[in-house]
């Protein structure tokens, strides 16, 4: 958010964000590529065979209506729900983009951004082309239909947005994107984020049977007023007043 605010507050500037999505990220991890990435990062050679043994020699089969398929030994993928699985995936994606452009990574989520003006046109398409080559080299695949573009600017006269594509698929331009649980809007407002009102307790009719048996759940007042939907501060003030703090 700091990058977006600073990049868009300058007169005549635009900040463009691109959120990417890997298709079956953990299931597509190539074992040989992952082992090479671990070695390139300085992993101890004595540990690499142990990690390769963790990734390989796994088998799986399908059960359907009482019938079982033959065992198959996949040549890619890491076990999800393990501690080592995300570490291997991080090693695989560590060298993506490098210092080519401003970007942020979190496990299988990757977001890139660039500030551009009419005098310095957007070069994100070249970055996306290079990123696509890197993805192919790592034997991974992008889900271009889930990749999104967000343009943020304070200019009154909106310029023509550049057309960005991945794998010859034009990326969808959105009014808001979600990055690590936070909703970033093109107008930099927060109403899309607070409209989730996750901080409000549920209505009585929305409570489950287990919650109904827990009397503490029913002591928290629910506020329907619009003023309480926009910010938790007035709601918390009412709670403090009701409970005598």
TrEMBL record:
Pfam families, alphabetized: RVT_1
Residue span(s) of domain Reverse transcriptase: 1-166
UniProt protein name: Reverse transcriptase domain-containing protein
Source organism (scientific name): Sinocyclocheilus anshuiensis
InterPro entries on file: DNA/RNA_pol_sf, RT_dom
């Amino acid at each position: 958010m700091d990058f977006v605010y600073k990049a868009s507050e300058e007169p005549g500037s635009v900040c463009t964000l691109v959120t990417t999505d890997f298709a079956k990220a953990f299931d597509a991890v190539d074992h040989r590529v992952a082992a090479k990435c671990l070695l390139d990062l300085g992993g101890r050679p004595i540990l690499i065979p142990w990690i390769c043994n963790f990734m390989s020699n796994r088998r799986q089969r399908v059960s359907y209506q009482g019938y079982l398929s033959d065992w198959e030994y996949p040549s890619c993928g890491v076990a999800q729900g393990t501690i080592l699985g995300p570490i291997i995936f991080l090693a695989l994606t560590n060298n993506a983009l490098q210092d080519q452009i401003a970007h942020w990574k979190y496990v299988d989520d990757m977001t890139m951004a660039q500030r551009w003006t009419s005098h310095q046109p957007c070069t994100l398409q070249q970055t996306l082309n290079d990123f696509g080559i890197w993805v192919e080299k790592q034997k991974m695949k992008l889900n271009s239909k889930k990749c999104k573009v967000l343009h943020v600017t304070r200019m009154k006269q909106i310029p023509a947005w550049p057309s960005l594509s991945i794998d010859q698929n034009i990326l969808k331009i959105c009014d808001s994107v979600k990055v690590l649980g936070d909703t970033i809007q093109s107008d930099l407002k927060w109403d899309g984020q607070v409209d989730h009102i996750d901080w409000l307790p549920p209505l009585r009719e929305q409570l489950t049977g287990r919650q109904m048996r827990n009397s503490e759940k029913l002591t928290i007042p629910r506020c329907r007023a619009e003023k309480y939907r926009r910010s938790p501060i007035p709601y918390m003030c009412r709670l403090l007043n009701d409970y005598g703090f």
